[in-house]
């Protein structure tokens, strides 16, 4: 049994589904992984799927400005999900562009919905989990932080990876991604009405995880939706 489960007071609901959404570098990935460990659930980082399409497109020499080319890159069966290139800023930038295409979103939809619907429950993180992929999730978190805090975190992370980056460039990139993610017409980044807001601007990673667990507990203690 997962030792973290000992921390959880009260029974864990069977088939618990947790949706974690939020903008780039908000901490949603760290929080989603921690929740998955805590509840012993499988986790899907859906951003990685869009990044895989982006990397595939790059390797195929396709044009990110073409929705048709991006759609042709949606067969990601040959992509190695351990490839560090998936985490690069170049691939992230292309992912942010091609994720606005309805055909790309459609191509990745069923895989994500099936992951969310598995019998044992799941944790998914992304931009449209609580609104499109798992609209009846048991708990929904919308994780955010100020653009400056997110840019500082992303900058420090890239520096640690040995990349030569400037804070101002990272901040400009964060603003550009926010605009693309919130401004697109298909599945824009938006807080679901029934999602709990978790602002991590003034929280360290431990405090953010503790707060996420508290919010999930609170959400799952409520009566079932529709009852
Ligand atoms: O979360 P991450 O930064 O890895 O995601 C890469 C890009 O994929 C994001 O900029 C976003 O535009 C897109 N994305 C999305 N829907 C998701 C997950 C990611 O549009 N559910």
Please name the defining characteristics of this protein.
227 residues; alpha/beta; Rossmann fold; five-stranded parallel beta sheet; globular; binds cytidine-5'-monophosphate
Overview of this protein structure:
The structure is a single chain. With 227 residues, the chain is an alpha/beta fold. The chain has one domain (17-217): 3-Layer(aba) Sandwich (Rossmann fold), CATH 3.40.50.300. The protein has 9 helices and 5 strands, in the order E-H-E-H-H-H-H-E-H-E-H-H-E-H. The protein has helices spanning 28-39, 46-60, 67-72, 89-98, 102-117, 129-133, 147-160, 167-183, 205-221; strands at residues 17-21, 43-45, 122-126, 139-144, 196-199. Strands 2-3-1-4-5 form a 5-stranded parallel sheet, with helices on both faces. Helix 1 (28-39) crosses helix 9 (205-221). The chain is globular. The two termini are 32 Å apart. The model is unreliable at 1-8 (pLDDT under 50). The site of cytidine-5'-monophosphate has 14 residues, from helix 2, helix 4 and helix 8.
- Give the total of beta strands: 5
Shape: globular
What's the CATH H-level superfamily name?
P-loop containing nucleotide triphosphate hydrolases
CATH architecture: 3-Layer(aba) Sandwich
Report how far apart the termini are. Answer: 32 Å
What would you call the structural class? alpha/beta
What fold name stands as the CATH topology?
Rossmann fold
Radius of gyration: 17 Å
Series of H and E elements: EHEHHHHEHEHHEH
Give the biggest sheet.
5 strands, parallel
Number of helices: 9
Average pLDDT over all residues: 91
Percent range for β-strand residues: 5-15%
Helical residues, percent: 40-55%
Spatial order of the strands in the main sheet?
A: 2-3-1-4-5
| Number of individual domains | 1
Q: Could you name the ranges where pLDDT drops below 50 across 5 or more consecutive residues?
A: 1-8
- The oligomeric state of the chains shown is single chain
Bound molecules: cytidine-5'-monophosphate
Question: Given this structure, which CATH class is correct?
Answer: Alpha Beta
């Amino acid at each position: 049994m997962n030792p973290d489960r000992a921390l959880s007071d009260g029974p864990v609901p069977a088939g618990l589904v947790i949706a974690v959404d939020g903008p780039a570098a908000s901490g949603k990935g760290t929080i989603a992984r921690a929740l998955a460990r805590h509840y012993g659930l499988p986790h899907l980082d859906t951003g990685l799927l869009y990044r895989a399409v982006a990397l595939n497109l790059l390797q195929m020499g396709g044009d990110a400005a073409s929705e048709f080319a991006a759609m042709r890159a949606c067969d990601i069966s040959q992509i190695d999900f351990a490839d560090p290139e998936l985490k690069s800023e170049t691939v992230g930038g292309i992912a942010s562009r091609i994720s606005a295409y309805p055909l790309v979103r459609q191509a990745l939809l069923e895989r994500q919905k099936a992951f969310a619907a598995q019998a044992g429950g799941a944790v998914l993180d992304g931009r449209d989990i609580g609104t499109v992929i798992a609209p009846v999730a048991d708990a929904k978190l919308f994780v955010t932080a100020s653009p400056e805090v997110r840019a500082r975190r992303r900058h420090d992370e890239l520096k640690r990876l040995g990349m030569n980056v400037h804070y101002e460039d990272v901040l400009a990139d964060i603003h550009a991604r926010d605009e693309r993610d919130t401004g697109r017409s298909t599945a824009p980044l938006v807080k679901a009405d029934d999602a709990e807001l978790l602002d991590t601007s003034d929280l360290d990673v431990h405090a953010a995880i503790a707060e996420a667990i508290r919010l999930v507990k609170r959400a799952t203690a409520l009566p079932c939706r529709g009852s």
